[in-house]
Design brief:
Layout (H helix, E strand, L loop, with lengths): L1 H4 L5 H11 L8 E4 L9 H16 L3 E6 L9 H13 L8 E3 L4 H13 L3 E4 L3 H8 L16 H12 L9 E4 L14 E5 L13 E3 L1 H11 L4 E5 L6 H11 L5 E5 L2 E3 L6 H9 L14 H7 L3 H11 L6 E3 L1 H15 L1 E3 L1 E2 L2 E6 L8 E6 L9 E6 L2 E5 L19 E4 L4 E9 L6 E8 L17 E2 L1 E3 L4 E8 L26 E9 L11 E4 L3 E5 L10 E6 L4 H12 L1
Parallel strand pairs: 1-2, 2-3, 8-9, 10-11, 12-25, 14-20, 18-21, 23-27
Antiparallel strand pairs: 4-5, 5-6, 6-7, 13-24, 14-17, 15-16, 17-22, 18-19, 19-20, 23-24, 25-26, 26-27
The chain binds adenosine-5'-triphosphate (ATP) and magnesium ion.
Adenosine-5'-triphosphate binds next to helix 3 and strand 8.
């Protein structure tokens, strides 16, 4: 979109421009994306990925993928693999720059020894609970640990013995010696190493101590010679600590810049909450199409292009806000409208018999694959005497504005003929309409009447004898509440789950061209919505379809409302 190319630069790009102008990093731009492998990536991570890799691309710089794997109790190789797959799928490439914080464990240990030798770190025997009590509060200063003034020799000896596993988990920590009265709680002698005799997915049982995030992150950035370390706002208060470690050690010093995290309405974006939904069976896995995970969105039918456009449109801010999920849906619709092949599929089938159409005749009619893109060509769809149409496209007693099929009413069947409803057959017991009897006008082949007469409605349909019965899964927002993370007293976020977030329809009938649809392939079912062939449950010849999006664009409506309110 040309008008988006000219939009003003965000504050991060403005900082980078300035740093290039002053030659602060010798003309280099080097970012990193640092996920912790303790869950699948979600759309919030996509914002960070697009930002970090996007900036590297735009400035001819580099972006590393670095696993921030310092907490072996929560991490797993399954997550490492999914993260790499998701970043690649989004269209980004870290080249040969795949790193793990755990690769730096030895170097980080040496940095800790240096801090001890400088009198800037000490081994503390307070329990985690005591450390909390000593820390003080926002209004009260903390209290110094009784172990704060241990000698360098004693600290070196104890720290070395912590490393080899001589002490029980949690019995001691290594802490930075900064300032227990600092107004910033993060500076009140933060823990930098803890004892955790837990095997690590990469280093095995080599280590009995693991470094904390704040210590690891700045030094990993420094080791990799990152120029701009972009992170979310909750790290703003940690920045003094980021800078403190680097300054004390006198090492290469990247700049940390914070931006607002993405919050999306009607979903949750914390790995902990998403993990609960998976573990407790509320969804069918991390890649459930209702999940805001990259794997879920992919399975649902979202394209990397739509996600990247979304990340570009939401832009960057320094204040947290909530983005309406309708914008994400708008981006996927806009993309699929251009690329997805149109087909016909009937979700709630109602049988139609065309009384004046010969019993064994089949015609192959031409249908347009995508009116937005003539290069996508045409295909044949079979037409015969018995068809299915959508149940809601018929009303026995239609209200004024209903222009679809009704007794005595003539409508167009897309790419086929005009038909007129001549009779309605009902179930004797329930009174439910089970079949329509119609006639067709052979002169209207292709969908136009030579005498110029008009019809108001055009319906999609499939030939009953040729249609493939398929399962279709309709999705709605996972949560009814726009902000499910804002939990009312006595409730949990799970109570806001939308009971209709998944509705399974079976059988639906789709045109025969879809028998060979491949997993992950996306279509627009005309008048119905966008659908994607499920990559997990489809079998050759019997695709299962996930609804990617409806055709209704609620975002356009929201924008209109917002324009009015301004
Ligand atoms: P969660 O709270 O879901 O566990 P996290 O921040 O702990 O997320 P990480 O794996 O540490 O997850 O995140 C990797 C990177 O992605 C970090 O730089 C983080 O700031 C960024 N990130 C995470 N969530 C979001 C979000 N909602 N919006 C933008 N960036 C995010
Ligand atoms: Mg994190």
């Amino acid at each position: 979109m040309p008008q988006e190319k000219t939009k003003p630069k965000d504050f991060i790009r403005a900082i980078i421009d300035e740093d290039l102008r002053t030659d602060k990093y010798g003309g280099r731009v080097h970012t990193r994306f640092p996920p912790e492998p303790n869950g699948y990536l979600h759309i919030g991570h996509a914002k960070s990925i697009c930002l970090n890799f996007g900036i590297a691309d735009e400035y001819g710089g580099l972006c590393n993928l670095r696993f921030d794997d310092t907490n072996p109790t929560k991490e797993d190789v399954e997550y490492v693999e999914s993260i790499m797959e998701d970043v690649r799928w989004l269209g980004y490439d870290w080249g040969d720059r795949l790193y793990y914080a755990s690769d730096y464990f030895e170097q980080l240990y040496q940095y800790a020894i240096e801090l001890i030798k400088m009198g800037k770190a000490y081994v503390c025997d307070l329990s985690p609970e005591e450390i909390r009590q000593y820390r003080g509060t926002l209004t009260e200063p903390g209290k110094e640990s009784p172990y704060r003034n241990r000698s360098v020799e004693e600290n070196l000896d104890l720290f070395q013995r912590m490393r080899v596993g001589e002490f029980p988990d949690g019995s001691r920590t290594l802490r930075a010696k900064i300032d227990m009265a600092s107004p910033n709680l993060n500076m009140r002698d933060p823990v930098i190493y803890r004892i955790m005799r837990v095997p690590h997915h990469r280093t095995g049982d080599k280590w009995s101590i693991y470094p904390m995030y704040d210590f690891t992150h700045c030094l990993s950035d420094s080791i990799e010679r990152i120029t701009h370390s972009l992170c979310t706002l909750e790290f703003e208060d940690h920045r003094p600590l980021y800078d403190w470690f680097l300054d004390q050690l006198g090492v290469y010093h990247p700049r940390q810049i914070e931006f607002a995290r993405l919050n999306l309405s009607h979903t949750v974006m914390s790995k902990r909450m998403l993990g609960q939904l998976v573990d407790e069976g509320y969804v069918r896995g991390w890649d459930d199409p209702r999940m805001p995970t990259i794997a879920g969105l992919r399975r649902r039918g979202y394209t990397p292009e739509a996600i990247r456009t979304f990340c570009d449109r939401i832009g960057l801010a320094k204040r947290d806000s909530m983005v309406d999920i309708a914008l994400l849906e708008h981006c996927v619709r806009e993309d699929l409208n251009k690329r997805a092949q149109r087909v016909m599929g009937v979700l709630h089938p109602l049988k139609v018999v065309i009384e004046n159409y010969p019993e064994d005749k089949v015609e192959e009619l031409d249908a347009i694959n995508n009116p937005e893109d003539p290069s996508m060509g045409t295909r044949k769809v079979p037409f015969s005497r018995e068809l299915y149409i959508e149940r809601d496209d018929f009303m026995e007693n239609p209200p004024k504005k209903f222009f679809r099929l009704a007794p005595g009413r003539e409508v167009r069947l897309r790419y086929a003929y005009f038909i007129t409803c001549v009779d309605v057959i009902k179930d004797e017991n329930t009174g439910e309409v089970i079949e329509l009897r119609c006639t067709y006008d052979p002169a209207t082949r292709g969908g136009d009447a030579p005498d110029g007469r008009k019809v108001r409605g055009t319906l999609h349909w499939v030939s009953a004898a040729h249609a493939i019965p398929v399962e279709v899964r309709l999705y709605e927002h996972l949560f009814l509440k726009p902000d499910p993370g804002d939990v009312e007293k006595g409730k949990t976020f799970k109570e806001y789950i939308n009971p209709n977030s998944l509705v399974v329809l079976n059988p639906c009938y789709v045109e025969p061209s879809l028998a060979n649809a491949k997993p992950g392939e996306r279509f627009q079912f005309e008048r119905v919505g966008y659908f994607c062939v499920d990559s997990v449950d489809s079998k050759p010849g019997t695709p299962v379809f996930n609804r990617t999006a409806t055709l209704r664009d609620t975002w356009a409506k929201i924008q209109k409302r917002e324009a009015k309110n301004q």
